[in-house]
Amino acid sequence: MGQPAQQQEVPGIQSEMRPVPDCGEQSYKGSGKLEGKVAVITGGDSGIGRAVAIAFAREGADVLISYLSEDSDAKDTAGYVEQAGRRAVLVKGDIADPQLCRNIIQTAVDDLGGVDILVSNAAFQMTHETLDEISEEEWDHTIHTNISAMFHLCKAAIPHMKPGSSIIGSSSVNSDMPNPTLAPYAATKAAIANFCASLAQMLGEKGIRVNSVAPGPIWTPLIPSTMPPEKVEKFGENTPLGRAGQPKELAPVYVLLASDDGSYISGARIAVTGGRPVL
Hints:
Blueprint: E1 38-42, H1 47-58, E2 62-67, H2 71-83, E3 88-92, H3 98-112, E4 117-120, H4 136-157, E5 166-170, H5 183-203, E6 209-215, H6 222-226, H7 229-234, H8 251-258, E7 269-272
Parallel strand pairs: 1-2, 1-4, 2-3, 4-5, 5-6, 6-7
Helix pairs in contact: 1-2, 1-8, 3-4, 4-5
């Protein structure tokens, strides 16, 4: 049920993983739920972000894919979007830079005509056994990438969003069940869930819905690039379902929250954890 021990450099390349994650490339079928929408997805090149990009495109959305440096993965994802008959725009760079966040939103407005859906998904983590192992630079980078970027993205996007628009933050089961070896990451994931709950109340009068998704252990490039091989091999085995999830198993939840099917869902944190409770 598991995966072989393996290691990559950060940020990891999906095509080099064994097995390659299933992002719904061959299985997701759309039904027009996002027809005519424009979606921005950070970390959209691989893993959960790729699965969401594929699903959104097959539901009718044009997609801006923000990614760090994984050119081959990003081009593959853009190809799937275009095969669905939708427009794909790629923006490369580190979202820890606030100006890049603003540029991402402006590019969506200029090239795709607006922003109807914002998925703040890109994240950084690293495994450490003690606090002494975590440098100040790594702490700051984790905060800037995982939560500050969402602030800058939202601040730039909201003026362009119409009633019915949706913001989705990728939180984690770590948001209230923190893994001590992922302390900085877990802290940011709790912050994302909390920030989304605040925004849902702040933006309700504008007709903009805000929710977060709390994945459990999902097989993405983040895992072999940030965990030691022995942990990769056992990744996901401690869930009630006994396995890691595949990115494609997240995509329908993001579609629900982005579409009119979720028109009364706001301020929620949806758990997709293989059985681990998120309270």
